[in-house]
From TrEMBL:
A Pfam cross-reference name: FGGY_N
Native organism taxonomy: Bacteria, Bacillati, Actinomycetota, Actinomycetes, Kineosporiales
Database matches in InterPro entries: ATPase_NBD, FGGY_Carb_Kinase, FGGY_N
A GO term for molecular function: kinase activity
Residue ranges of every copy of the Carbohydrate kinase FGGY N-terminal domain listed in the record: 7-246
Name the UniProt record assigns to this protein: Sugar (Pentulose or hexulose) kinase
Keyword DNA-binding belongs to the record: no
Source species: Pseudokineococcus lusitanus
Family: Belongs to the FGGY kinase family.
Record-linked Gene3D superfamilies: 3.30.420.40
C-alpha cells in the first residue's frame, strides 16, 4: 500500500451519489456528493442509464481528489455500495441493452401479479422477497414482454456491480445485492433456476458470486483520474447492511436502525431463516437475504417515519431552525398516545399522511402523535422480526432524525437497549472498510473485525473532514 494513500467508499444512492476518502486509520479526509441522475417520463416511468451512473460515480470520486491536499496522494482502494434492485442489462458484447429502471418504478407489477399462486409462493420461499414490482426479476420480466433482448448471453449487474465492472473490474455478483434481484436462491446462494424458467428469463443472468471485501480487480478505465487508476476494487454490497458495517453493527444478532431519509431496520441473523418464517415476513414487506457479512442473513424492513415526520413538521411550520427545535423539545415531553390527535401513514398514495384532530391541538402534540404512529410501526416490525429470528442482543440507531430529542426519546422507548450514535455516512464508511480489506489481499472477511477496531469510533454526523485548498491541476 502506498504511504499516505486513501480508501474511498462510494455509495450510489437513489437521490445522491456520495464518495468519502478515509486515511489508513479510518479517519475521513475528504468527501464529495453529486445528484444521482434520473429522468421521469410523462407516464411516470423513472429510469437512467449505466453510462450516466458511471459518470456520476466518477464525478463524485474525482470531486474529492483536489481536497486530499497532497497532489501525489493516491486512492488505494474503492469499495462501492448502493441501491440493489436497479441494474444494468448487458448483451453478449458487454454493451448496455436496456435502460436502468428505478427500484421504485412500478414496471413489472403486472407480470408478478400474473404468476400462479404456487409460483408466487415459491418465489418468496426461495428468494425471501415479496412477489411484486421491486425485485430486479420483475423489471426483467416486464422488459422481456416489451421488446428487451434478454438472452442466455445477457448479464444482469446491480448498480454497484456495474460501476465496479465499468471501472475495469470483474463482472461479479455480490450476495447481498444478488439477494435483491429475485434471481438468487438466498438460502443456498445459487441461481433460482425454476423461478427464472417461470418468468421466461434465462438461467444465466447472474455472474459468479464474490463476497464483499475481496478484490474484484483494479481501476483501469482510461477516463479515471491517474490517482484513481490502479485502485483495488470491491463490490461492497447493498447499502443497508454496508451501512450497518460502517456504523459498527456487525454482530450475529444485532439490530441496526438507519433513521435517515428512509427509516430501515436491519436484523442480522446467524444462518438461514426458515421457509415458513420467510413467507410470513415477506407478506408483511420484510425481506430476507444474504448479509454483506459471511454466514449471516439480513432481515430488512422499513417504516414510514421520514415522510410522516416531514409532513407533520411542514404542517406546523417547523421544518428547520429554531422553530423546529422548539417544537421538538416540547414534543419530547408530551405523553403518548395523544388524546384527540391521530396521525397515520396511508391513504390513496404511498406517501399520504392522514391527520385527524378532534380538538384544538398544539404543534408539539401533532408531532408527538406522529411519533406515536411511527413507534407503533417500529414496535410491530421488531416484534415480527423477533418472532422469526429471536430477540436481538444489541441495537444501534443512526441517522439524521436522531438529532431531534423527541425522536431519540421514541427510539429509546421502542428499541430495547438501543445505542444512539451520530455516524457520518455509514454506508461510505462501510464500503471503504471493505475496500481496505480487499486492498490487503483478503480472500475472506476474517480480518474485517480487526480492521474496524483499528479504525476506531466513526466520526459523528455533522462533523466534516477538513478540506485542504485544492492543489491545482485539472481533473
Amino acid at each position: 500500500m502506498v504511504t499516505g494513500s486513501v480508501h474511498v467508499g462510494l455509495d450510489v444512492g437513489s437521490t445522491r451519489t456520495k464518495a468519502v476518502a478515509y486515511d489508513g486509520a479510518g479517519r475521513p479526509v475528504a468527501e464529495h456528493h453529486v445528484a444521482t441522475p434520473w429522468t421521469t417520463s410523462a407516464q411516470g416511468r423513472t429510469e437512467t442509464s449505466g453510462a450516466a451512473l458511471l459518470a456520476g460515480a466518477l464525478a463524485a470520486v474525482h470531486g474529492l481528489l483536489p481536497r486530499l491536499g497532497d497532489p501525489s496522494r493516491r486512492v488505494a482502494s474503492l469499495g462501492v455500495t448502493g441501491m440493489a434492485e436497479s441494474g444494468v442489462l448487458l448483451d453478449a458484447t458487454g454493451a448496455e441493452s436496456a435502460p436502468v429502471v428505478a427500484w421504485y418504478d412500478p414496471r413489472g407489477a403486472e407480470e408478478m401479479a400474473a404468476l400462479p399462486g404456487c409460483v408466487a409462493a415459491a418465489f418468496t420461499a426461495t428468494t425471501g422477497l415479496r412477489a411484486d414490482a421491486q425485485p430486479s426479476a420483475a423489471t426483467l420480466a416486464w422488459g422481456l414482454r416489451h421488446g428487451w433482448r434478454v438472452t442466455p448471453a445477457s448479464t444482469w449487474l446491480t448498480v454497484p456491480e456495474h460501476v465496479v465492472a465499468a471501472l475495469g473490474g470483474d463482472r461479479v455478483a455480490e450476495p447481498s445485492l444478488a439477494s435483491r434481484t429475485g434471481l438468487l436462491d438466498t438460502t443456498r446462494l445459487v441461481p433460482a433456476d425454476d423461478l427464472a424458467d417461470a418468468l421466461g428469463l434465462p438461467r444465466t443472468l447472474l455472474p459468479p458470486l464474490r463476497r464483499a471485501g475481496t478484490s474484484a480487480g483494479r481501476v483501469t478505465l482510461a477516463d479515471a483520474d491517474p490517482r484513481l487508476r490502479g485502485a483495488v476494487l470491491t463490490v461492497a454490497g447493498h447499502d443497508h447492511p454496508v451501512g450497518a458495517v460502517g456504523a459498527g453493527a456487525t454482530g450475529a444478532a444485532h439490530l441496526f436502525n438507519g433513521a435517515g431519509t428512509a427509516d430501515v431496520l436491519l436484523r442480522s441473523a446467524a444462518g438461514p431463516v426458515a421457509a415458513a418464517d420467510r413467507a410470513r415476513l415477506a407478506a408483511a414487506g420484510v425481506s430476507v437475504g444474504a448479509h454483506v457479512l459471511e454466514d449471516l442473513s439480513a432481515v430488512v424492513g422499513g417504516v414510514s417515519a421520514g415522510v410522516v415526520l416531514r409532513r407533520v413538521l411542514s404542517l406546523v411550520g417547523a421544518v428547520d431552525g429554531a422553530r423546529r427545535d422548539a417544537v421538538d423539545a416540547a414534543a419530547a415531553l408530551v405523553p403518548r398516545p395523544v388524546p384527540g390527535v391521530t396521525v397515520r401513514a396511508g391513504g390513496r398514495g404511498g406517501d399520504d399522511v392522514q391527520v385527524v384532530v378532534t380538538r384544538e391541538a398544539e404543534p408539539a402534540e401533532l408531532l408527538a402523535a406522529a411519533l406515536h404512529h411511527v413507534g407503533e410501526q417500529t414496535s410491530a416490525l421488531v416484534d415480527l422480526m423477533t418472532s422469526a429470528v429471536g430477540p436481538h442482543t444489541a441495537a444501534l440507531c443512526v441517522g439524521g432524525w436522531t438529532r431531534m430529542a423527541s425522536v431519540r426519546a421514541l427510539k429509546q422507548d421502542v428499541l430495547p437497549g438501543v445505542e444512539l450514535a451520530d455516524v457520518a455516512l455509514p454506508g461510505c464508511r462501510g464500503a471503504a472498510a471493505l475496500g481496505a480489506l480487499a486492498a490487503m489481499g483478503a480472500h475472506d472477511q476474517h480480518d474485517l473485525t480487526d480492521l474496524l477496531a483499528a479504525w476506531g469510533t466513526p466520526l459523528p454526523a455533522g462533523v466534516r473532514p477538513p478540506h485542504p485548498a485544492p492543489s491545482g491541476g485539472a481533473l
